[in-house]
């Protein structure tokens, strides 16, 4: 094979490989499942009192904000389902009027007093917890499943839009002890009871998470046949 023909073959193979790489970057990926790690110390969570009065997981003090944040890479297929599970312990009658809110990109008058330094918030649960509640389960694609809250299409859209941004800031206010918080993403909606419960929520799908939240899927490469000049 002549040097010129060998060069043409090399260029054709390289061009085909690069085309495959470009396709891998732009090809839509699946809505893969994951459960990101919860943080109780994210400095950008500025919902009511989170700047100055937060406590970490497991802290039993009353009158303190429980501020939780999840960060994750949004898969190419987007977020198609998500629910929250909190493992918690009510602090007697002090927990009777506690509430859970999520920060969103739109302000709503009914939640304005809890905005803090965030644009807006939506109430996900209110009217507190009884001594029997050990978990709080919230379907973020059906926030009205918790009958303690008033929901409309704008509030639901604000929550689902926030999920697509890869960051979720939450506040549980302000006497209930939170031991653990879990965000279950793309494993199907909440299949068990919404609201306070004796058991943790379970997903509609029994499939385990397919990839960790920090590792987006890579589309397969396809080496197309090169067309060589004569």
For the structure shown, list the relevant keywords:
230 residues, alpha+beta, four-stranded antiparallel beta sheet, 23% strand, disordered C terminus
Task: Explain how this protein is built.
The protein contains 2 helices and 9 strands. The protein is globular, with a radius of gyration of 23 Å. It has helices at 3-26, 153-163; strands spanning 38-39, 66-71, 82-89, 99-104, 120-125, 135-139, 167-173, 177-185, 195-197. 15% of the residues lie in helices and 23% in strands. It has 230 residues and is α+β, with helices and mostly antiparallel strands. The protein has a 5-stranded antiparallel β-sheet, with helices on one face. A 4-stranded antiparallel β-sheet has the order 8-3-6-9, with no helix packed on it.
């Amino acid at each position: 094979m002549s040097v010129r023909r060998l060069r043409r073959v090399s260029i054709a193979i390289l061009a085909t490989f690069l085309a495959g790489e470009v396709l891998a970057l732009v090809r839509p990926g699946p809505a893969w499942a994951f459960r990101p790690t919860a943080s109780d110390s994210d400095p950008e969570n500025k919902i009511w009192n989170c700047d100055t009065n937060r406590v970490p997981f497991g802290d039993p003090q009353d009158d303190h904000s429980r501020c939780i944040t999840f960060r994750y890479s949004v898969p190419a297929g987007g977020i198609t389902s998500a629910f929250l599970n909190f493992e918690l312990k009510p602090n007697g009658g002090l927990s009777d009027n506690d509430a859970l809110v999520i920060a969103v990109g739109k302000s709503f008058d009914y939640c304005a007093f809890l905005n803090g330094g965030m644009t807006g918030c939506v109430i996900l649960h209110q009217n507190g917890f009884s001594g029997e509640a050990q978990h709080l389960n919230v379907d973020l694609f059906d926030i009205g499943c918790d009958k303690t809250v008033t929901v409309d299409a704008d509030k639901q859209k604000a929550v689902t839009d926030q999920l697509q941004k890869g960051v979720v800031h939450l506040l549980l206010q302000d006497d209930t002890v939170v031991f653990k918080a879990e965000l279950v993403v793309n494993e199907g909606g909440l299949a068990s009871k919404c609201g306070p419960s004796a058991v943790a929520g379970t997903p509609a799908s029994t499939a385990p998470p397919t990839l960790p939240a920090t590792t987006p899927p890579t589309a397969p490469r396809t080496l197309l046949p090169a067309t060589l000049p004569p």
